[in-house]
Amino acid sequence: MELRQLQYFLTVVEEANFTRAAARLHVAQPGVSAQIRQMERELGQPLLDRSGRRVTTTEAGEAVLPYARAALAAIEGMRQTVDEFTGLVRGHVTIGVVSGAATDEYDLAALLADFHDEHPQVEISLTEDTSARMLTALRRGELDLAIVGVTDDDPLPGTSLQVVIDTPLVAAMTPKDPLLLPVGRTALPLAALADRPL
After folding, report:
1. pLDDT of 46 higher than 70
2. Residue 197 vs residue 74, higher pLDDT
3. Residues with Cβ < 8 Å from 131, sequence gap 6 or more?
4. Where do the CATH 1.10.10.10 domains begin and end in the chain?
5. Mean pLDDT throughout 53-69?
6. How confident is the model over 34-44, as pLDDT tens digits?
7. How far is CA 126 from CA 25, 27, 45, 112, 195, in A?
8. pLDDT digits 0-9 by tens, 74-85
9. In the chain, N or C terminus with fewer CB closer than 10 Å?
10. pLDDT-based confidence at 87, cuts 50/70/90?
11. Which residues belong to CATH 3.40.190.10 in the chain?
12. Per-residue confidence (pLDDT) for residue 8, from 0 to 100
């Protein structure tokens, strides 16, 4: 059995689809299927149920899954240990970015370029989404880091927060808008805008 087969198996399980798994692995889909079939022949049991729209694990596949994860984690641990002796940092980091995060105040491209210069063996993946979805992905372990917009300084359970830009939210309205009463009002609760068309 080869480590590549274990990686293909885990990726198909995570994606629940051979085509998406192949795209994520950057290999042809028939190659992924062939490697998993070979692994199944070697083990003498089907590991994946391909009969539905989604690929799922069989009972044997579910039993094998923790061992496949442990084997790949052990190999990665060995690599990291050796890398510590040579001073080389390698791996993969997945970063989520809210739309509009790259500004003059926060030059994300320059930060990533500097990080890549310091750690050329670390692969960086960027994804863009809403703050709420990225916070969920962060808690699930699908993201390593997320640059999001939040309305308070309290981190969500299971996360920590570092403020990189503090930008006030401003409501602009006509001078006769009732929200400006009493005269001289300078602050509004966000709830005051909830039912207003923006």
Report:
1. yes
2. 74
3. 98, 146, 148, 149, 150
4. 3-86
5. 92
6. 999 999 999 99
7. 16, 20, 38, 10, 34
8. 988 888 777 766
9. C
10. low
11. 90-147
12. 92
CATH superfamily of 90-147: Periplasmic binding protein-like II (3.40.190.10)
Per the structure block, which two tokens stand in for 174? 């006509």
Cα–Cα distance for residue pair 150/140, rounded to 1 Å? 18
- For domain 3-86, the question of CATH label 1.10.10.10 is answered with yes
Between CA 44 and CA 51 the distance in angstroms is: 19
Least Cα distance to 171 among 148, 147, 191 occurs for 191
Tokens representing residue 147 in the block: 């640059």
